[in-house]
Amino acid sequence: MDRPANAPLRFGVFELDPRAGELRRSGRRIALQPQPLEVLRALIERPGEVVTREELRRRIWSNGAYVDFDRSLNKAIVKLRDALGDDAESPRYIETLPRHGYRFIPLPEAHAHVEDAPACPEPSPPSSVQSASTRRPWYWAALGITLLALAAWLTPSWFRVDAPSHPGPPADAAPAGAVAFTPPPHSIAVLPLVNLSGDQEQEYFSDGLTEELLSSLARINELQVAGRTSSFYFKGKNVDLGTIARRLNVAAVLDGSVRRSGHTVRVNARLTDALTGFNLWSATYDRDLGDILGLQSEIANAVAAALKVKLLGNTAARVELGGTRNPAAFDAYLRASRIFWSASDERSMKEAAAGFTAAVAQDPDYALARVARSIALNSIQLFDPGPAARDNLEAAQAEALKAVELAPELADGHLALALVAATSLDYARAESEFERAVALAPGSERILRDYSGFTAAMGHVDSGIAAARRAVELNPLDQQSYAWLALALEGARRYEEAIQVLNAVVAAAPNPSLQAQLGTLYYEAGNLERARSECELGREHFLAQLCLAATYEKLGRHRDAQAELARIQASAGDAGAYLYAEIYAQWGRPAKALEWLETAVRVRSPLLTGLKTDVLLDPLRQEPRFQAIERALKFQADPI
Q: pTM for this one?
């Protein structure tokens, strides 16, 4: 039977209703403009097939009026990624084929299909217990403290739910050659290895091998390595290496390709001088999967020699730290990492954890796999802070402890321990492990970014700001790095500087979460009208709802303020106790705020980590009950 032309289309947890012009997910409605809606419709109708740019032009932009087609289509794709929480680098729904077209990735549970239900069903009333499929650990973003390397270690899609496919302030504001290009010496970017296997399914392997190579080079403290997000931004883009080097501020660029056939891997690698464009070094390697660690060591030594870096200590030991020579374990690890990158609910996070468990089963001494499993388990208990949360947290700690036992000098292991300790509100242990991780890997932007949020929250705002600035230098095209810098500045009450940082990012690439953060900064700086306008732009994000609850109340819109609070309570329940304390503190109701703050302590809310420097809780700081809570949490830093 033919499908009605405007019937709703369902895929995964989403439903597209062309008649209403909106996308729905679990009662949430996202309005779509006509062009993005038609693009999504065209892709959903042909799951797994490539829809070319020319097909989309003829279908949607064929009315004869002049338009910049490329710009319009690219904007439509960005808007769709925003709505879906998708990511161009690790797509879950829309895959880009550079200069050719797009493909809707088939979902295992269902492809697009017509629903017999009415076109505009009423959303189900919110339940006090959220389903696992819709819950996500939104509360970590509330304070911007990435205490789970969930954000900094692998940055999975649920954390970047609002992040568009293009980054923050570009480093190429001036034309090439307009200013002298003087990158730091011994600085390098590692571009994604091109998959030459002829099998799209092997993309996880080429990307994973790139990540492992990047991480290995970053362990050499004599090198400065650009962060993953910035390097992977150029995947599939036809950009010359000189431009890439300028945008990332590096002296050299490593690129190449990988071809896998069974247990054999061929890697072509090339190192280019960014200043001259000359080839510094190139090589081709044929290796068995079991010798991947040796391959990483060889490439690292060759890169260091080409850059004339004087290496201290045993380079191979640093590069191979925590790795495996077991092909099955390595493959399972890369597959699980790919799932973790795109995880957006408890089910997929459990799938990632199971993949890391499989890697550990193949090689119990694989410390990096144990670190990854620890972080995945920590993530699961944040998705669903129910009865099983304590078990997952204990298992996460056991894995991190084992990783450190296996590889005491592995910074990622100490980071995993820090994250578990912070989640458990053990701040003394968390601080010690964070500092150990930074000492072992001072050039890791991922560790620096997590550390910046934690140490600023502990009251060490100068250290937090310095670490955040360094993370931005290492990962200049990552929006979240700028967000953490703004949060560290906010903790120091340096609102205007924080606003300046975020304004630049939002101007380059608007997204709801950053606009909510910017609006909150305007609120704290006393600019209520600007706070309202920014937070209304990002109002689907829970941070914007918190901001609007406080802002509307100050503007005398009491009913609207209550409505925003009710929206958060409907989705969060007692898990949002800390947020309610912030709102009531700003409403001038200290008794109610303290009541909710005590509930946050009772449920062991991870958000309590921010209590010491949280601007929104300032009205409570002289209250004896507040001071008792602060003492009980045993913060380690001196007051700011």
A: 0.73
